[in-house]
Design a protein that fits this description.
single chain; six-stranded mixed β-sheet; 19% strand
Length: 384
């Protein structure tokens, strides 16, 4: 197949139909040029869904005088699947007409191998590896926090793939309340509970949803509430947005997180749990809110910062410590106290607080949030 501006070499006609079919299968009908991946069947402009928009390109030209051609190798590789790429018109022209010198044999072979390896990995996914992608965004301060499915859908690969090729959104855009107002927390909590009930809860109970991949950006109390709704009955991967390198993927070669757990004094009137992973929380800020007669328990990091959660194992370490400290607080203080939570946590750890908490076994929680307008921690949501 040829188009204006892209020369049809003599080698193109020597590619057998069988070889073309194998190439189509290996490329999954998509352009193999790096970061293109355009589907080459159908045309959105004309509405013709059956159009073939693909071009079979030679890495070593089928003619010795063609791009990257060679007197000896060109005739040898003219019908060799290892020497062929499936390309869209724009990238076929780029490698054979506009930027021939920049597109060396090694560069094109690397593109082809990368694309075909990715297709092979995706092709091995089975039905039981599907996951339902959950997006939850809520207003943080004066900033709205939308989450795009396009930005997160590939993060679940290669262990899972998005069920139905879409996600479940729990966002609430356009809330007029601000987070220093009590109405903000009441409104956001009710909205989250209703959306969760309508879109997710029933599907978990009927078995339609068997695994979740959670992507969330919201104030920490609401993330804890989301975790409470999710609980730990349905298997879930809770993802963390990192600043460096920016993205939702885990850093595979990261150093394991180092956390410390400390106990508070016995016999105090009130109980506080300080969770300081992303920033330091001084005890004086807690005394300012609760008074001096308070037992402060804590999970803290050696070097708190926003990107401290870099691997899923870091979340597991945090979960295990939190489970033990919930149990220990109850053993020390009995069942008639409320645990005041003061969090400075990455989003994934905030969600895990709610998932670790067990409604029938653990003490009620009152979640505080640092508010810039109030210049203090303020009480937000109660979990009981």
């Amino acid at each position: 197949m040829s188009k204006a501006g892209v020369p049809e070499t003599s080698g193109s006609s020597k590619v057998r139909d069988k070889t073309r079919q194998i190439l189509w299968a290996k490329a999954a009908g998509r352009c193999q040029y790096s970061n293109c991946n355009r589907l080459l069947i159908g045309d959105l402009i004309s509405g013709n869904r059956d159009i073939n928009a693909a071009l079979v390109a030679h890495i070593i030209a089928g003619d010795k005088n063609g791009p990257r051609g060679d007197e000896i190798r060109s005739p040898q590789l003219v019908d060799d699947i290892r020497n062929l790429m499936l390309l869209c018109y724009d990238h076929h022209r780029l490698i054979d007409v506009d930027e021939v010198a920049e597109h060396t044999e090694d560069r094109l072979l690397e593109m082809k191998a990368s694309h075909e390896q990715r297709i092979e990995i995706l092709g091995e996914l089975t039905e039981d590896q599907q996951t339902h992608v959950i997006r939850y965004g809520a207003k943080i301060g004066s900033n709205e926090s939308p989450l795009s499915f396009e930005n997160v859908r590939t993060v679940v690969l290669p262990d899972h793939y998005p069920a139905d090729g879409r996600s479940i959104g729990l966002e609430l855009i356009g809330c007029q309340f601000e987070d220093h107002e009590e109405s903000f927390w009441t409104f956001q909590q009710e909205n989250l509970q209703r959306q969760f009930r309508d879109k997710i809860k029933g599907k978990i109970e009927t078995g339609e949803i068997r695994h979740l991949s959670v992507f969330a950006l919201a104030p920490q109390p609401l993330l804890i509430e989301l975790g409470r709704l999710l609980c730990d009955i349905c298997p879930a991967n809770i993802h963390q947005l990192k600043r460096e390198p920016k993205g939702w993927g885990w850093v595979q070669d990261s150093t394991p997180i180092s956390l410390q757990r400390s106990e508070g004094k016995h016999g105090a009137k009130q109980v506080a749990l300080k969770l300081a992973l992303s920033a330091t929380v001084n005890d004086g800020r807690i005394y300012k809110v609760l008074g001096g007669d308070v037992s402060i328990w804590s999970i803290t990091a050696d070097n708190p910062h926003n990107d401290i959660i870099r691997h899923s194992d870091d979340l597991l370490i945090f979960r295990q410590l939190l489970r033990r400290i919930f149990d220990r607080i109850k053993a020390v203080h009995g069942e008639d106290v409320c645990v005041n939570i003061f969090p400075a946590l990455p989003v994934s750890a905030s969600v895990e607080v709610g998932r670790v908490w067990m409604p029938k076994a653990d003490l009620p929680l009152l979640i505080y949030d640092q508010n810039n307008k109030k210049k203090s921690f303020i009480p937000t949501l109660r979990i009981k």
